[in-house]
Amino acid sequence: MTEGLSRKGARSHERDRHRACPAPPVPRSPSLTGGGTPVRGEPWFAVLPDGAAGAAAAGALRPWASGVIDHASGRPWLVGEWPCDQIRHARAGSAQVTVLGRCPVTTVDLTRRLDRIRDLDDVERVVAGLPGSFHLIAAVGGRVRVRGSASAVRRVFQAQVAGVTVAASRSDVLGTVTGAPVDEEVLAARLLPHCAAWPLQEAGVWRGVTGVPPDHCLILEPDGTATLRRWWSPPEPALPLDEGAEAVRDALVAAVGSCAKGGSHYGDTISADLSGGLDSTALCFLAGRGSARLVTMHRQGADTGPSGSGDTVWARRAAAALPNARHLTAGRDDVPPWFGGLTDPRQALEEPSGWVRDTARIAYVTDRLIAAGSYLHLTGVGGDELFSVQPSYLHDLVRRRPLTALAHLRARRMPWWRSLRALAERDSHAAWLAGCAGGLSGEPAPSNAYGDALALTWGAPPRMPVWATGQAVQAARDVLSGIAADEPPPLCRRRAQHATLLQARTAGAGLRQVEQATVRLGLPYAAPYLDDAVIEAALSVRPHERGAPGLRKPLLTTAMDGLVPRPFLARPPRSGPAAEFYAGLRRHRTELMDLFSSSLLARIGLIDPAALRAALTGPRPPLHAVEPLSRTLACEIWLRSLSGRERLPAMAIGGH
């Protein structure tokens, strides 16, 4: 269903609708190595202040844009490219609001809701209770407010353009239009694991382009200045499991409902992963309740497991219980393995993405789903992060319910004395972060570095890959030290809540990068578990009940009881990705070696190709020693993708 924009007047309505709704991208044959620019032909937007200087900044962005929405003054407010069915806009007097993304609100309803606001402090009332995942941009009395989602699936970035602060949905839009150079120190820090240390993820790879924290909004004043303001805070985890499960159930049903809308500008068919795991299976059963036609996709992997426990066995059982859906299966020999499709990469990536290892398989799956008529694909990303609780909840629990905490510790069979010492430790997040910076090295981590008592701390100390140069280690240490010097607070004061939200945001950032690739091919992605309302519902439950030992994802299974047949809620845990990692490494080791033999990361002094080659050789190198390969590959491919831009950032990579 496509909604037009609200009227500014009978004669201007059609003009506004045309300017604000560029034609949606035409689905193309999937190829993630397709060149191009980071902005032209792909969804993005920039937000401008309502002043003369803002109008000048718009002039720098207009060559990249095909859509414009004006301020009440007539100056440009939003510029960019966006599909018509992803935008809702309403105007009332000097106030207007735009919702960009997946949200079931209609223009009529949005206009009615707009009557509730008198100034920028009231803006959240406009979308109160609405499910989905979207940006919210508002202008009231010449002041502008923009925010993304708390999950980091929708982000906002800021930079100085023509002397004023401009916000945008993509960092590379601002990096390109300002000619920003790459920040090599931050790039070195991107060799660290995804969840290395909050707020390392907020450090931008483009100098002068900074991310707005997902729980903050950006306020743009008419004079071009800007301030940050918190718009979202995690809930207090006070609900018992049964009560919290009802909230999760309602939020997840609404989230999936916002995807399965039964018709759109592209069609009336949605698709969903059916891996055989609990998270994706639950989404398929929820999506099957909607009015849209459902196509499921199962990829056969290396997980055979004990008799009857393999993913394919469970996926077939779920397919049989969903007779009205169409079920696609990709055979083990049909799905490209990890690290395929990386030779001669020319895709324009916003930032380094660990998902680049899945380039070929994403293209393969997208091709089949587009052929099946899907206009939106649902993925179970975020389920593990929200519902598999880290043992760090014991650090908080032992101070409130010591007997319960000790019983959980015993049930988890954690090392007794080492765990008790960790439980007694009281380091603040800032102190822990400073320790991470001071102790950062490139020495290989022991195989059990991320288990046992370390799970009770703020996180495992991050380590650089063994092939990082001394220059790279020092650069990353400097970035971490600079962040630690500001003594940033944790995302939540309780360690388990902090860990859950950090993992959810990391998953959200990854999903956002994957969707940028799939949208380019013609198929948007959605992760209902990462909708803000679902995250908020999950975080509202007591962590020791969410993470009760001996139970697998008790919050999710309780929430889905009655909607998903019970046998699927009780399936055994899945195996990890090790088998797929090694299969991809065996298949593409030669291509990886060739890629890094002419490495741009090596040219700027961040990696040692010989050390990387040594780590990857041998019949089966230790997994913990080569796990950082995805991050290194992400940075390498991103550097190479810069040559596909119309305007290459001013980074002298050839001079090292």
TrEMBL record:
Pfam families: Asn_synthase (PF00733). One of its GO terms (molecular function) is asparagine synthase (glutamine-hydrolyzing) activity. Residues 1-38 are annotated as: Disordered. SUPFAM superfamilies: Adenine nucleotide alpha hydrolases-like. Signal peptide: none annotated. One of its GO terms (biological process) is asparagine biosynthetic process. This is Asparagine synthetase B family protein. Residues 248-640 form the Asparagine synthetase domain.
